[in-house]
From TrEMBL:
Domain of life: Eukaryota
Lineage: Eukaryota, Metazoa, Chordata, Craniata, Vertebrata
Cellular location(s): Cytoplasm
Chief subcellular location: cytoplasm
Keywords per UniProt: Cytoplasm, Guanine-nucleotide releasing factor, Phosphoprotein, Repeat, WD repeat
Protein name per the record: DENN domain-containing protein 3
Protein source organism: Moschus moschiferus (Siberian musk deer)
Known partners and oligomeric status: Forms oligomers. Interacts with 6 of the 7 known isoforms of 14-3-3 proteins.
Any single Pfam family the record assigns to this protein: DENN
GO biological process: regulation of Rab protein signal transduction
Basic residues composition bias: residue spans: 70-80
Amino acid sequence: MLCGEGLFVPLAVDCDLFQEPFHREVAQRKGVKGPSSLDPEVLSVFVPPFVTKEDSQPAAVNCMTLGKNRKRSFRKKRERPRVELGKGVPGGPRGPDPEDVSIPNGVDLLALPQLCFPGGLCVASEPREDCVHFLVLTDVCGNRTYGVVAQYYRPLHDEYCFYNGKTHWEALGPGGSAAGCFVPFAVCVVSRFPYYNALKDCLSCLLTHLKFCKDFEVDNHIKDFAVKLSLIPSPPPGPLHLIFNMKPLQIVFPSRADPESPLIDLDLHLPLLCFRPEKVLQILTCLLTEQRIVFFSSSWALLTLVAECFMAYLHPLQWQHTFVPILSGQMLDFLMAPTSFLMGCHLDHFEEVSKEADGLILINIDNGNITYSNDEEVDVPDIPLLAAQTFIQRVQSLQLHHELDLAHLCTSTDVNEGRASRRAWQQQLNGQIQQLTLQLLVSIFREVKNHLNYEHRVFNSEEFLKTRALGDQQFYKQVLDTYMFHAFLKARLSRRMDAFAQMDLHTQSEEDRINGMLLSPRRPTIEKMASRKSLAPHAAHRRMVVSMPNLHDIAVPELPPRNSSLRKIQTTECGSSRAVLDVPPKSTYTFKIPEIHFPLVAQCVQAFYADCVAQLSKAMGSLAPENSVLLARYFYLRGLVQLMQGQLLGALLDFQSLYKTDVRVFPADLVQTTVESLSTPERTQAECMPELRRLISEVMDRPVDAPKADDRVKNFELPRKHMQLDDFVKRVQESGIVKDSGVIHRLFEALTVGHQKQIDPETFKDFYNCWKEAEAEAQEVSLPLSVMEQLDKNECVYKLSRSVKTNHGVGKIAMTQKRLFLLTEGRPGYVEISTFRNIEDVRSTMATFLLLRIPMLKIKMASKKEVFEANLKTECDLWHLMVKEMWAGRKLADDHKDPQYVQQALTHVLLMDAVVGTLQSPGAIYAASKLSYFDRMKNEMPMAVPKTTSETLKHKINPSAGETAPRAVDALLYTPGHLDPAEKVEDAHPKLWCALDEGKVIVFDASSWTIHQHCFRVGTSRLNCMVMAEQSQVWVGSEDSVIYIINVHSMSCNKQLTDHRSSITGLAVQDGVQAPSTVYSCSADGMVLAWNASSLRVTSRFQVPSGGLLAIRLHDGRLWCCTGDSILVVNMNGSPCQELKIDGSFKETGTSFLGFQLMPEQEQLWVACAGYPDVYVWSLQDLAQPPQRIHLQDCSEINCMIRVKKQIWVGATGLSQGRLKGKIYVMDAERRTVEKELVAHADTVKTLCSAEDRYVLSGAGREEGKIAIWKVE
């Protein structure tokens, strides 16, 4: 019997594939009947390359030459060969070294025959149906290869048969005869990719030839089959599938959806046909808790397919343990392994396994039952109830039967047409099932992120478990201890934007989106409290104790609508995050592989490669430039084919094009190997090509052994030794209580008042417990519906006093982020005390009652004559501190239009409460007063916001919310909303793009000032400039000389322009009326490039003679370039027209131009100079005339300037009330005077941008790190 093995794909998606021999081997197994046993025997193995230029000997290896020592050698680890000359696939001058390519890694010829005939061998008296089953082979490193085995029967001729010209059949015995006997054969193809359906179809086509050919012809048929497979490239991740003609069928090789997704080439609904949804959930629980699992079935094929389906259901979580979906009868002892595993056995072994092994989960695929070995009860918890109920409802809504969709259609008379229809239906169903299982995982693990500390890579498992419903805790306790969950945590802490993170983002509610900006609410909002009441009769109570960083309030709704939004788009309220996500099927495309011509000689193979290149080039020529996703796949495939042809420079050019189309599929390792293999003439030629020069330098500069980042996950533990300030800051951040370093410094001062400046472990433990107890108590607050109706839906109860006597009756005083109210006792009622904005005075006094002096809190309101009084007794001093701090925070928030002050005040208040509970000493109130930061600021440094500033300022947002310290805002871009029917409504909102340091970009929804897209990276360097092109692209210029292009619809950055050699300093867009827009980019070395925004090709380039470009502007069909020493006006081809040089008065101080703005209507050129507090205005009619100088009062230096209507806004650093502040000067262009002087930020103003000429947005330096929104008059 023969077995074929092969590492599928000579042209693979993986970056390292070109470094490996293109293993594809096909061999055939034949059952041999001997006197005592029937054992499978390897007859031949076929591996590529089948023919080389030097040697055309066949690659078939006779089984008689495969001795035991040779077989063992196949299992040894081999080093990967390098690309070198003269060896490879036939006809190619270059290719991988064919040395030692007999058997692929991880394939053992000793064990493989058993797996090809897992049920044993038997000679049949009559022919049997052909059948297929599937294998998963794992090497010692855990790398998997996949096998597809086709079994078929051939009639046995009398006495013997010839195979490959040699006798291979022994006499059946004395008087034996072969007449009427049918012998089993098997053909196995082994691939590095799980192409189950595709290879099953291929083998089905092969069997149509093998069953009727002569024995001596079998070898040639299998070899031809192997050659075809060895020449088919594996498609890169994305929407492009490959079609190959394997007569009589058209075979489709699908691609992965994206680089992070698994390859799915099987029917994912098979488990849903075999098991009820409840059983599917039970099996998923067994996998998530890493049990010892055994599948059973009478169908060998179903064992692997069902097991692989469950692996796909877990994505992006991955099974970390042994995975052997098929065990032959001789391998049953594997089930005695003590560790977790997933294995599969034939149903005939069910009773034997059930009795002999302990602690196994036995899953019968045939009848859909789940039992335990030895009738023992294995501790398998239930999946969380709410997630389970939602999953079952979604599964029941699926259409699992293709026949129902075909009932109204005529029967297709074309077999390939019918298969295509079935494949399209299956692809859509697979997508629905993947979305459904992914939603299940997101609903189970969504709140894990609330208990992560990203800076120190800490997960607070204890606090997370406290937030789980009582009935779900056993499930989570077991899951949290698994290798699978640990790997999941690593991905979360690395902020990997995988399928889980994307689904989490897309299914979050509007409230979750707001809270995402603020990290996490510490308390349930009134809206959640009300929903909890409505669900109380139907669901178990969940105690939510979320304790992540700084408290933040949803303050935008408190502002007038016109202040909180640039443009409002009315939308209907979306469903909850538990609703079924309606994901339209993704478009897929196909590319047909050319026919392969025989005989197998170098000329035929080269002709095949040439046909591939020609057809790929033709397909690329018919594509629109904006279809970059599909274009990238064609570039990738053509590059691989050119590598096989030996056209290395052509291949590198195609791979270089991936930067401009989809950098996600760029094969970095393959490119490096190719560059290293270039000959000296080729290297010289490549260095002369601008497109390849940078690519080669980057490849050669890559560190050989880059240090691996520490990705360990730590579980939060209370400290065991005394802590100095730095260690205390780290511990508090790890605990998830507070992240802001400044607040933690104040907390350290409070806890060490009157003591040595260190904190002992007991004090920290007491503080931590006080904080958590206060959180838990607030979570348990249950307000009557009549009370909740009086509050805003986003309000949270942060503090509740004991029952006290007040001048409005007896009750408890409650504090939210907005107000104080009394929750009256007896018949629960609501009495509003005051909003913090309405407080006029707060005092703590002593009231005399008989001989007692009782502490009393008095609150005077601006709108009422009556003073609220409460006998708070021992709580009075603490409430006095807390109310004053909230009052001060509210006033600062109103003055500065910055709701962050209220959030910080809330943090101070809750920390005060925890400090008093921790210290429990007479000095506790004094210690807590160290956290009265805003109250002290109001009393000691009363600085009123200037009236002009207050009237012009509309709002402030903080892109550094949740960070340990503020980050500088390096660049801002506003993009208007566009109502595209293909987009979600929220995606059509206007957006604010904010570039922070280290290549971070945060996107705000400019209709609500909430975060639309959490921080993602575009490189790791500072970002200098941003523009929008074609209404769908945001171009970002970086210090690392790369232009990154973000797709505004998918919010992904998959394109990079790498033609510059120095820091990108400016971008300008020339919108085309009918033609695509042109984007001009400039770099610090003086290079200017013009780009076609659609094709991303450079249409022209020129060098500015003086170099040092700082900025460019488009005006009147010309480019204005600021070089520091001059402002140069050039034509679009780079020829100079006019130049404005710094005159002698400037040169005396060694200054340079900093930036400029053009005012076409007024024919003015406004210029700022480095180190000067002045703005200079030239007339465009005559630049030779001296400029008018406009001095900016109390200005130290200018940083940026923009044009808005007939105004120039200048961002600067200047003095205000004796301190350096970030200031904005608003200047009238016609009168050339300063209209307004705005005190914008506590730090310098680094960047300005305009929003539809209605608003101006300013970004501050790293001391403040906030964005201010200003109204344009």
